[in-house]
Design goal:
By secondary structure, the protein is of the alpha/beta class. The chain contains 18 helices and five strands. The termini are far apart. About 5% of the residues have low confidence.
Length: about 450
C-alpha cells in the first residue's frame, strides 16, 4: 500500500481542490492532516479561533479522519510521513513570504528522508507571478493588471478525484480542533457554510446591486466572502465560474465584484514579486516622509484603536472591527487615512492592528491596501488623497444608521447630523468624546509633508 499525505493549510475544503486530486492519484490511500502551528495560533487573535472553527468543520466533513497535530511543521510533517510510510506530501502552493520559507524548510526536511513535498494549485484564480507584461515584467499598477488578468482567464473548477481511499491505518488518536464552529457573519465556518453564503448572495440580488451598493456600510450589500476566501473554504475559481455560468448575473454589479477579486489577486502578485513590501514601503518616493511619534502620538493611536477619535464614522469602523473581527472595506480606507494622514502615523502600525483583529486578515491585501491609502504603494499619484471623515460619512452613510449602530452615545442625534456632533447643541450629552485633532488642519499638514519629500 502506498500512502500520500495531504497537508491542509489555506485550502480548508474538499471540492475544487487540485492538491487533493494529486494526492488521490499518487497513492492508494490519502492521509489528511492539519498542523496547529503555534506561530499562527496566537491565542489573543480572533483569527485563531476562526481558523480552528474552519478546521473543525473540515474534520466533520472528513468524518473524523483528519489528523490534527500541534508543533512546528518542519518536525510534524516529516515525522508523520515516516510514521505512515508516505513518500509524498501534497500541498496547495503557498505564495506568502512566511509560507514560502516554511515550505522550503519542510521540503528540505522531507528530502533528507528521500520524500517529496509536491505543491499543486494555488489559493488564487491566477497563480501569483503568472500574469506579466509583454516584456515579462510584473505589473505595478492595478488597472493594466486587471485587464491582463481578465484576458488570461480562470481555469474551471477542478472536478473531484475519481475515487478517494482515505487512510485507515493506526496513527494514534485522531485529534480534532476542540473549538466549536463560530458564526462567520451570515453563516458558520467551513466549506458548506461558505458555499451557502455565496448562494444566498446570488439569490437575493446583491450581486446585481453590488456596483451601486458596495460602498454603503449601512446596507448589507457585500458578500463577506473575504473570510471564507482567507481560509480557502471556497476558491475564487468557483465564484468566477458561477458568475460566468449565469448570463443574468453579467451586470455592472457582477463586473465590479470580479474587479474586487482582481484586487485580491493583484496584491498577492505584488507580494510574490516583492516579498519585502509586506512591511516596507513598496515605492521609495516617500521613504523620508516624517511621521509623528512619542507619548502624545501613542495616546492618539490608542484613541484610534478604541474608536474614540471624536469622528463618528472613524469610530464606528474601529468599533465594528473590535466587536466583529470585520470591517466594511470603505471604512478600512477611511480609518487608514485617518491614522496615516490625520495622525501622521506610519502605516505598519495600523496594518498590524488590523491583522491582530481581522478574521480575514491577509497580509497581501491588508498591507498593500494600507500602502495604497498611505501613498507608498501601487497607486501612481496618491500623495494628495486625504479622506475627509465627514464627507465620506455623508456620502456613504447618508442617514447615519451605520454610525448610530456602532456609536450608541450618538443614538439621540437624528439623520446625517450624527456625523458632526460638534454642530449639535446636544451632540455630547451622552459622553461621546471631542475630536482629538482638527481634520482640516491635519490635511494641510499632511499635504505639506508630502510636497516637502517629493521635491
Amino acid at each position: 500500500m502506498t500512502v500520500s499525505l495531504l497537508w491542509f493549510r489555506r485550502d480548508l475544503r474538499i471540492s475544487d481542490h487540485p492538491a487533493l486530486v494529486a494526492a488521490a492519484e499518487a497513492g492508494t490511500s490519502v492521509l489528511p492532516v492539519f498542523v496547529l502551528d503555534p506561530r499562527l495560533l496566537t491565542p489573543e487573535r480572533p483569527r485563531a479561533r476562526r481558523l480552528l472553527a474552519s478546521v473543525r468543520a473540515l474534520a466533520d466533513s472528513l468524518d473524523g479522519r483528519l489528523v490534527v497535530r500541534a508543533g512546528d511543521p518542519v518536525d510534524v510533517i516529516p515525522g508523520l510521513a515516516r510514521e505512515v510510510g508516505a513518500d509524498t506530501v501534497h500541498v496547495t502552493r503557498e505564495t506568502t513570504p512566511f509560507g514560502r520559507r516554511r515550505d522550503a524548510a519542510v521540503g528540505a526536511a522531507l528530502g533528507r528522508d528521500g520524500r517529496r513535498l509536491i505543491p499543486t494549485g494555488t489559493p488564487y484564480a491566477a497563480e501569483p507571478g503568472l500574469v506579466v507584461t509583454q516584456s515579462g515584467e510584473p505589473y505595478r499598477v492595478f488597472t493594466p493588471f486587471a485587464r491582463a488578468w481578465g484576458a488570461h482567464g480562470s481555469p474551471p473548477p477542478v472536478p473531484p478525484p475519481r475515487r478517494i481511499s482515505w487512510f485507515d491505518g493506526d496513527v494514534g488518536p485522531v485529534a480534532r480542533a476542540g473549538v466549536p464552529a463560530v458564526d462567520a457573519y451570515g453563516g458558520g465556518a467551513g466549506e458548506l457554510a461558505a458555499r451557502q453564503q455565496w448562494i444566498d448572495f446570488l439569490a437575493d440580488g446583491r450581486l446585481g446591486r453590488y456596483d451601486h451598493d458596495r460602498d454603503r456600510p449601512d446596507l448589507d450589500a457585500t458578500s463577506r466572502l473575504s473570510i471564507p476566501l482567507k481560509y480557502g473554504e471556497i476558491h475564487p475559481r468557483t465564484i468566477l465560474a458561477d458568475i460566468a455560468s449565469h448570463p443574468e448575473d453579467r451586470t455592472s454589479g457582477a463586473a465590479r465584484f470580479v474587479s474586487e477579486l482582481a484586487w485580491r489577486e493583484f496584491y498577492a502578485d505584488v507580494l510574490w514579486h516583492r516579498p519585502d513590501s509586506a512591511w516596507r514601503d513598496l515605492r521609495p518616493e516617500l521613504t523620508h516622509l516624517p511621521y509623528d511619534a512619542g507619548p502624545e502620538t501613542d495616546r492618539l493611536v490608542e484613541a484610534w484603536r478604541q474608536g474614540r477619535t471624536g469622528y463618528p464614522i472613524v469610530d464606528a469602523g474601529m468599533r465594528q472591527l473590535l466587536a466583529e473581527g470585520w470591517m466594511h472595506n470603505r471604512l478600512r480606507m477611511v480609518t487608514a487615512s485617518f491614522l496615516t494622514k490625520d495622525l501622521h502615523v506610519w502605516w505598519p502600525i495600523g496594518a498590524r492592528h488590523f491583522l491582530d483583529h481581522l478574521l480575514d486578515g491577509d497580509i497581501a491585501s491588508n498591507n498593500h491596501g494600507w500602502q495604497w491609502v498611505a501613498g507608498t504603494g501601487t497607486d501612481a499619484a496618491p500623495y494628495f488623497r486625504v479622506f475627509s471623515p465627514v464627507r465620506q460619512a455623508r456620502r456613504f452613510d447618508p442617514l447615519g444608521d451605520y454610525v448610530r449602530r456602532w456609536v450608541p452615545e450618538l443614538g439621540h442625534v437624528p439623520g446625517a447630523a450624527v456625523h458632526e456632533p460638534w454642530s449639535q447643541p446636544n451632540g455630547y450629552d451622552h459622553g461621546y468624546p471631542r475630536r482629538v485633532v482638527d481634520h482640516d488642519d491635519e490635511r494641510r499638514e499632511a499635504l505639506a509633508r508630502y510636497r516637502q519629500v517629493r521635491r
